Model the fold of this input.
Amino acid sequence: VTYVQVPNLTFEKGIIYSAFPNAHIEEVPNRGYDVYPFLKVINSVNLDRYDAILKLHSKGQKKGKYFFNWNYPCKKISWREGLLAPLISTPEVFNRNLKLLGNGVNMVASGPFIVNRVGFSCKGVREELQHLGKHQIKSFEFVAGTIFLASPSIFKSLPFYDECYFPVPIIGTEDISHVYERIFGFLACDNGGSIKACDYDYSKFLYKLTNRDLALRWLNFCRYMFLYKLKIITKTKFKDKYLHYIKIKQMAKHINFK
Done:
């Protein structure tokens, strides 16, 4: 368990130890959102000792509509509920998801938050992957929110960076932490691996797509195409939007629009 360094954690530590007497609690500097503490932990343990890693962290209750994955168009739900309920809402749900790991499935996460389009839109992803020795880079999926079950082996290639590599979080900005959000997904999908949606009934999260939804996405794609022609955005950014639109078009064939 990691906690940002604060003057007094006695109360919080007591709650954790009462539920998990053998827990190891480590205080970390307020850097890199949830990513730096996670990298610090996985680099301090022998990953071969573990069959699975469950990565959890605090999330807000702000609600919104999410279109990360067009197989799961979400109505207004919070990130906390949307990410956690399909993964660990009950012991039965958790055990079903745990059984999904293996046979090429390297990561399990809430379906609506698996971004099923190219993950390069966050600046610096390609450069960081090449720094990690990943030069044959293809499109991949990743989990928005970085809450997941994963195979420990996929993280073995990650180096440990000094805390100074990760800036103090500034809400609403993207930094190296968001790059690693994508990289975790790349590692899960590398060498033929995959990310699988949790075994869960998502019906309460979903809503029926409309012609208006498709039209708005088409107009957004046209806008990006125009910006690309004017050389205002990069080819990578345009490719991201293009693949997103192709996915929408494929999904439209199987959707009964209102």
